[in-house]
Amino acid sequence: LFNIGSLKFEMGQTAEALKYYQRSLDIKEKIHDKYGKLANYLNMGDAERKLQNYPEAEKYYSNGLQLSRQLGANDYSKSFYRELSVLFSKQEKFKEAYEYHVKYSALKDTLINEEKNRALAELQTRYDLSEKQRDIDRLEQEGKLDAEKAARDKIFRNSLIFIILMIIVFAFVI
């Protein structure tokens, strides 16, 4: 139903889209799909704004914002802040538009920083793993060299013992 509503909205059939969004929202409320409701609130707010039914649009955006903050769904919160800013700007409520735009910008920056920190941590982890792998490879190589040296030393020692024994045997024979 939600997707049908989205198609109707894209086709310019905004009132029809709202009906499908509402039916979808009713189902999501029955099955307690809180995250699913967020998309409905956002799209229903968009549809009401397009129909210039600003109080209803504000209601959907505000409900969505409240729910997204409860759920910690920051991407949705960012979207709701942005849409509320646009909505108030259309109504020439510039103070409110500015306040929501500031919240939108702050949250957007926070999300970008979190993403950069996550990417940086991933790069650091990859670097650390490659360093450890290099250390392992180096230690394995050193171990092989030590094993080769031990083998050479053993051959040398055995050869030396054999030569000494041969000298002793020849000394007794002569």
Question: How does this model look, in words?
Answer:
With 174 residues, this protein is mostly helical. 91% of the residues lie in helices and 0% in strands. It has helices spanning 2-10, 14-30, 34-50, 54-71, 74-90, 94-173. Helix 2 (14-30) packs antiparallel against helix 3 (34-50), helix 3 (34-50) packs antiparallel against helix 4 and helix 5 (74-90) runs antiparallel to helix 6 (94-173). The longest helix is centred in the C-terminal third of the chain and has 80 residues, at 94-173. It starts with a helix and ends with a helix.
Summed up:
This protein has 174 residues and is mainly α. Helices cover 91% and strands 0% of the residues.
Please describe the structure with a list of short key phrases separated by commas or semicolons.
174 residues; mainly alpha; 6 helices
| Helix-residue proportion | over 70%
Mean pLDDT: 93
Task: List the helices and strands in order.
Answer: HHHHHH
Give the N-terminus to C-terminus distance in angstroms.
109 Å
Count every helix, treating DSSP H or I runs of 4 or more residues as helices: 6
Shape: rod-shaped
Count the beta strands. Answer: 0
> Structural class per helix/strand content?
mainly alpha
Using only CA atoms, what is the Rg? Answer: 36 Å
Largest sheet, described in full?
Answer: none
Low-confidence parts lasting 5 or more residues at pLDDT below 50? Answer: none
DSSP strand content: under 5%
